[in-house]
Amino acid sequence: MALSSSAVIHMNMNVKRFDMVRAQQELTLEIPKSKIPKRATHLVESICNAIHHHLQMDPHPPSRSIDLPSYYEEKLSTPTMSPREDISQKWRQIHGCFNWENILDPLHPWLRREIIKYGEFTQATYDAFDYDSFSEYCGSCRYNRNKLFDKLALSKNGYAVTKYLYAMSHIELPRWLERSHVADTWSRDSNWIGYVAVSNDQETRRIGRRDIVVAWRGTVAPFEWYEDFQRKLDPIGKKDAKVEHGFLSIYTSKCEKTRYNKSSASDQVMKEITKLVRLYEEKGEEISVTITGHSLGGALALLNAYEAAYAVPNNVPISVISFGAPRVGNITFKQELEEMGVKTLRVVVKQDWVHRMPGLVFNESFKVFEEIAGLEWVYTHVGSELKLDVGSSPYLKGGGMNLPGFHSLETYLHLVDGYLSSETPFRSEAKRDVALVNKCCDMLVDELRIPQCWYQLANKGLVCNDHGRWVKPKRDPDDIPSHDDDALVPDEMQRYMMNLVSS
Amino acid sequence: MALSSSAVIHMNMNVKRFDMVRAQQELTLEIPKSKIPKRATHLVESICNAIHHHLQMDPHPPSRSIDLPSYYEEKLSTPTMSPREDISQKWRQIHGCFNWENILDPLHPWLRREIIKYGEFTQATYDAFDYDSFSEYCGSCRYNRNKLFDKLALSKNGYAVTKYLYAMSHIELPRWLERSHVADTWSRDSNWIGYVAVSNDQETRRIGRRDIVVAWRGTVAPFEWYEDFQRKLDPIGKKDAKVEHGFLSIYTSKCEKTRYNKSSASDQVMKEITKLVRLYEEKGEEISVTITGHSLGGALALLNAYEAAYAVPNNVPISVISFGAPRVGNITFKQELEEMGVKTLRVVVKQDWVHRMPGLVFNESFKVFEEIAGLEWVYTHVGSELKLDVGSSPYLKGGGMNLPGFHSLETYLHLVDGYLSSETPFRSEAKRDVALVNKCCDMLVDELRIPQCWYQLANKGLVCNDHGRWVKPKRDPDDIPSHDDDALVPDEMQRYMMNLVSS
To answer: What positions does the domain Fungal lipase-type occupy (chains A, B) (predicted)?
Structure first.
């Protein structure tokens, strides 16, 4: 009998359906009955969980009972700064010694202000970065470390930068390194990746201890990178801890032939932290180490904290405050961090995807893995979470899939500023400048009339010279990066540091 | 017999092929033999011509025997201005009285400088235009007319702006009108479309006559507009002249309800031209009218010249210098312009597409149409052509399909500056600032290290106020557009104009 092709397909489908039913029966027969419901339940739970994440992408914009433009207009003539309370008696709680229990929801105002302070330190690593691929200094900081906070209006925070950090990677990682098109450049292999800063005397009195801050710059690590993550974990430490190999490569790579990474970012930062800790310990001061970063920088912050926990005396508390950071390591990595007392506060935005990476499906909530394959290569988040919601702010466009906007650090800082608790609406007294959100993305509602991605140089840095020609001005000599970092410290900074030491 | 489906298709193809051969035979039999070769030749010629245009899109970059970066570096310390010769004895030739015969190839240096002067007047209409869709003044000029040339460093040319022009369109034209997102705006219907300026006494002496300039702003008219062009010609004048209905709509639309177009652009410009001509005629001066524009602005310039030719006395010569302008009207339009003595110099870049629009196929070279349908709706270019080639400049990226770059007015001005003749390489003494080319496109070779699209405001015009908040500053009151244009003239301008009149 000749069969039409559609009949063949139909028959094949019937065969298949039959096979599936039989296969299911066989499966049922083979597996001991007691185990099925638990596994099935966990599997369904995990997959539902993953799907649920996907469905969270379209929050409803909040209903606006206020006339937003005039409400916003009023804010423009009020200062953005809040009073700076003396938190010296409570600093250990704010620094996370009790894992921020009972002060996250509702969010304690003192903690809110500190989170924003550290977030702004991280934002500085973006704002001062030279992205200009025609600049011979592409990938460096546009200012030397003594100018950085002045240039970015962050001197108000009362910290001084003591060290710039540079990183490279032996592994070819897509789109993380900013590179100049120019042949003769300050560095072909390294990027400015962050800095170490320390609180001055006044701020030290206010916050109750000498605070050593490390801020790590992120890159918006591309999805193709995350796709490549699964199973690419490298061991760290002496136990079974493993971490994602790309993050570890950036943190630890060095090469004698380079100018800025004869030592790795890890070597640079640990040398500076131990030097500063010893300095202030000898003076009998209380000390804290606070490590912060956004996105990839949040991952580097965690690696840094892990290493610092081994190197720094036990009485020096170490905290990580990360923003939109991805998962970094396996469950042993997490356990070791906890055992060593590293406290981690992960600030995440519900609609952002990066903090769900790597391990969108295979993560700590995918419990069935415990039984199937062990947890050696399941990525796990660590610490406490402060979860923000784009939909909570009347200033933000909620809908759509604005991934750069949801992930932007300025969006995070805006949402922290407006966060009271998971149950209450956006804080009406929030004072932080709303316009900052649109610096590098398009998140603000149109009524506010703030252009998108407005953070830009006039004429991309070109200036008209005396002959009427548009030229790129030479960089101020003291802003040219130097691999011999100490040689760059001008007299004022030396004096400033002496003050820090002698006070 | 059962047939496989592929066999059926094969058979169908054979049937079709057979039919086509027969159809061709029938065609051959029906048409009188004498006519075939001519028609066929013309058809083939026209289509080859069109195809040839397509193939011109990929010029080979010139071989570079010079070390471009150091060659360019040297230029940066030389002035961009050339000496300004006294052209008062030759101005009529330079203004085109002999259709620029014998001075285009090779290009006379005096004419080159004049073309660039008028090009810069046109460029001003882009450089000063407010494109910010969050500005309540979107679509206006950012400066009042007395500041315009100072702000754009064009005062060196020795002209003063006497009138701003505004246009609207009753026809819905895609993407030509820049509109504010803001509810309360200076105008919902109109855009600043150009200006009238007049030479001051010093320049008048140098160029031998009082020169009235009209500069028309273009928009990069989108392809969907051109697609719609064919057969949409409206009559103009009293004979059979017809012009593209979109251009004519912008030039002639008015509406009593609007603030800036109670009179049309045509009414505004003609009132100003006739007023100025009368003024200087009464003083016994020699006068010229020079109308310039880029892209759509070049089309408006031609419409303006057509109208002015009827209104202005015969002894006042009228010239159009257009850059990358599309075709505007039919052959009668062209003939009338020629009969009235309007001289047109069309500057075109070989790789640009806009000057081939509308009528990429059906144009003046499509001769077969004469016989088939008459020339009533065939678009025709007018005047003389100065043809530039992107491939001639060692500074420009040649390859690819960089349509915005090929069409950019700054690319045109750069190529005019470097043009000696169609046979010789780029002029090595060309002094115009090369960096200007990349203002709003990406045309310069990477070795020059000029960022693409660099013409931008710092932070898109936001400034940090006293409270540390980023806000859009209020526009300087005397730069706010006014529909009662004369009310805006400050005292200095009044005095300046009086000087012009009394000198």
So the answer is: 213-360
**C-alpha to C-alpha distance for A492 and A150, rounded to whole angstroms:** 14
Q: Do A462 and B153 touch (CB under 8 A)?
A: no
Dihedral angle of Cα B405, B406, B407, B413, to the nearest 10 degrees: 90
pLDDT per position as a tens digit, B444-476: 998 899 999 999 999 999 999 988 899 999 899
In this structure, is the dihedral angle defined by the CA atoms of residues B204, B207, B211 and B217, taken in order, positive or negative? negative
Q: Which of B190, B266, B295, B322 is catalytic?
A: B295
- Cis before A358 (ω within 30): yes
Q: Using alpha carbons, select from A138, A241, A149, A134 the residue that is nearest to residue A200.
A: A149
How far CA B452 is from CA of A133, A134, A357, in Å, comes to 11, 10, 34
Chain A's closest residue to B440, CA to CA, is: A459
Q: Does residue B275 have a pLDDT over 70?
A: yes
Strand B318-323 to strand B287-294: parallel, antiparallel, or no bridges (unpaired)? parallel
Residue A206 pLDDT > 90: yes
CATH architecture for residues B35-502: 3-Layer(aba) Sandwich (3.40)
Q: Hey, how many other C-beta atoms are within 10 angstroms of the C-beta on A148?
A: 23
CB atoms inside a 10 Å sphere around CB A311: 13
Tell the residue number behind the tokens 């196929």, with chain if given. B361
pLDDT band of B179, cuts 50, 70, 90: confident
B127, B454, B455: which to substitute to probe chain A, counting the most A Cβ within 10 Å? Answer: B454
Model confidence at A6, in pLDDT bands (50, 70, 90)? very low
Whole-complex ipTM: 0.80
Q: How far apart are CA B387 and CA B384, in angstroms?
A: 10
Distance from C-alpha of A210 to C-alpha of A200, rounded to nearest angstrom = 8
Alpha-carbon span A139 to A130, nearest angstrom: 5
Measured in angstroms, the CA of B241 and the nearest CA of chain A are apart by 45
Name the pairing type of β-strands B384-388 and B463-464: unpaired
What is the C-alpha separation between A339 and B345, in angstroms, rounded? 82
Q: What distance in Å separates the CA atoms of residue A81 and residue A97, rounded to the nearest whole number?
A: 27
Establish whether B428 is a catalytic residue. no
In contact, B159 and B199? CB cutoff 8 Å: yes
Contact A449 B467 (CB under 8 A): no
What is the spatial distance between Cα A8 and Cα A4, in angstroms, rounded to a whole number? Answer: 6
Q: What is the pLDDT of residue A16?
A: 37
Q: Check whether A197 has a pLDDT greater than 50.
A: yes
Q: Which strand ranges, in their side-by-side order, compose the sheet holding B191-199?
A: B159-167, B191-199, B210-216, B287-294, B318-323, B343-349, B384-388
Judge whether A314 and A341 are in contact, CB under 8 Å: yes
Q: Does domain A34-502 have CATH number 3.40.50.11260?
A: no
| CB spacing of A433 vs B457 below 8 angstroms | no
End-to-end CA distance of chain B: 101
Task: For residue A150, give the 3-state DSSP assignment.
Answer: helix
Judged against a pLDDT cut of 60, whether residue A155 lies above it is answered with: yes
Cα A142 to Cα A148: distance, rounded to the nearest angstrom:
8
- pLDDT given for residue B382 in this prediction: 87
> Range with the lowest mean pLDDT among A14-23, A180-189, A272-281, A378-387?
A14-23
To the query of whether residue B352 is one of the catalytic residues in this protein, the response is yes
Nearest neighbour of A470 by CB, restricted to B182, B435, B472: B435
CA A27 to CA B41: how far, in whole Å?
A: 77
Among candidate residues B407, B408, B414, B485, the one labeled active-site is: B407
Number of H helices, E strands in chain B: 16, 11
